[in-house]
Amino acid sequence: MMEHAIEYLKNINKAFESRARLGIMSVLMVEEEVDFSFLKETLDLTDGNLSSHLRALEGASYLNVEKQFIGRRPNTRYSATAKGKNDFKSHLDALEKLIRDNKP
Amino acid sequence: MMEHAIEYLKNINKAFESRARLGIMSVLMVEEEVDFSFLKETLDLTDGNLSSHLRALEGASYLNVEKQFIGRRPNTRYSATAKGKNDFKSHLDALEKLIRDNKP
């Protein structure tokens, strides 16, 4: 049984470990595209904290980032890539197996 | 629905975020007490990496650590505290809600 534990732990993805990243990806599994303010309010994160997690996810090719202007104001929009959605699902599957093994 | 997302994200516990810590706590939900070598082999971690995660969990009062000797060899044994088990269950509950919301 412990052997089994090792197996699915390998599918737990470091890129999605933190609460912020779990939150960002969860939002982007439901919403096709959101802007920075929406994520900030929904996840209750500071600008700096949210930015750094978004950059990390973009660096892993999990996010598409589109910079545009609404009038004169910059507005940056985020969506999950197919790879991002796929790898996030694998991560959730691994967590689900871990939870199942920990249920009494 | 996004409002709901924020709520349970708050129960995701930073102390349990990493794969290593999820693994350590999972083992200690099943096994009453284990030694360092058992954790190292089961979780496939280096000495340094495992030590640092064990210290962090001990610092959060999630682990009991008992140093003893088997003959002349030091043998350190680890078990989860009641608080550790309880907080880990809350963490898994929060992850479970996140997974449920991400299922198609």
Walk me through the topology.
The structure is a homodimer of 104-residue chains.
Chain A: H1 2-9, H2 19-30, E1 34-35, H3 36-43, H4 47-59, E2 63-70, E3 73-80, H5 82-102
Antiparallel strand pairs in A: 1-3, 2-3
Domain Winged helix DNA-binding (chains A, B): 21-99
Organism (chains A, B): Persicitalea jodogahamensis
Protein name (chains A, B): Transcriptional regulator
What would you note in describing this structure?
By secondary structure, chain A is an alpha+beta fold. Chain A has a single domain (2-102), classed as Arc Repressor Mutant, subunit A, CATH 1.10.10.10. Helices cover 60% and strands 17% of the residues of chain A. Chain A has helices at 2-9, 19-30, 36-43, 47-59, 82-102, and strands at 34-35, 63-70, 73-80. Chain A has a 3-stranded antiparallel beta sheet with strand order 1-3-2. The first copy, chain A, starts with a helix and ends with a helix. In chain A, 26% of the residues are buried. Chains A and B meet through α1, α2 and α5 of A and α1, α2 and α5 of B. Chains A, B: It comes from Persicitalea jodogahamensis. Chains A, B: Residues 21-99 form the Winged helix DNA-binding domain. Chains A, B: Pfam families: HTH_34 (PF13601).
Order of helices and strands of chain A: HHEHHEEH
Rg estimate of chain A, integer Å: 16 Å
Main CATH class of chain A: Mainly Alpha
Give the largest interface.
A-B, 28 and 28 residues
Report the sheet with the most strands of chain A, covering strand number, pairing sense and barrel closure. Answer: 3 strands, antiparallel
Distance between the termini of chain A: 15 Å
Mean pLDDT of chain A: 90
Number of strands of chain A: 3
Strand content of chain A: 15-25%
SS element count, helices of chain A:
5
Going by helix content, strand content and strand pairing, the class of chain A is: alpha+beta
How are strands sequenced across the largest beta sheet of chain A?
1-3-2
Q: What is CATH's topology name of chain A?
A: Arc Repressor Mutant, subunit A
Poorly predicted regions of chain A: none
Domain Winged helix DNA-binding (chains A, B): 21-99
Protein name (chains A, B): Transcriptional regulator
Pfam family, one (chains A, B): HTH_34
InterPro entries (chains A, B): WH-like_DNA-bd_sf (IPR036388), WH_DNA-bd_dom (IPR027395), WH_DNA-bd_sf (IPR036390)
